[in-house]
Amino acid sequence: MGSLRGLGPQLESSMRRTDALPSLRRRLLGGETLYGLVIKPPAPALVEMCAAAGFDFAFIDGEHGTGDALEWEHHVRAGESFGLPSIVRVGSHHASE
Question: CA-CA distances (angstroms) from residue 11 to 28, 36, 59, 67, 94?
């Protein structure tokens, strides 16, 4: 994370290493209480804010929106850049719907 030094210590400290915590699945199965935030696209910046605020995961609700797979990918990547796991709910597995 040395290349982020110019962006400020707050940003650096909010970015977590992805190997620092067990997977979301393991944490849930272990009975840990986790906190997440429901986010409706388009709002990848909200995913970043969710991570910086200390949430455990982001729930990206794409079921009742206008988002598509590429848009959801931006949200997931925003979370990944901070080590924040994401769950995406889609309305259908068919590309035409």
Answer: 27, 20, 22, 28, 38
The radius of gyration computed from the CA coordinates of the chain, to the nearest angstrom, equals 14
Residue 11: CB atoms within 10 A of its CB come to 15
* Mean pLDDT (the chain, rounded): 81
At 4-37, the pLDDT tens digits run 455 555 555 555 555 567 899 999 999 999 999 9
What does the alpha-carbon distance between residue 1 and residue 7 come to, in Å, rounded to a whole number?
A: 11
Provide the total of helices (H) and of strands (E) in the chain, helices listed first.
Answer: 4, 3
The maximal CA–CA distance of the chain, rounded, in angstroms, is: 44
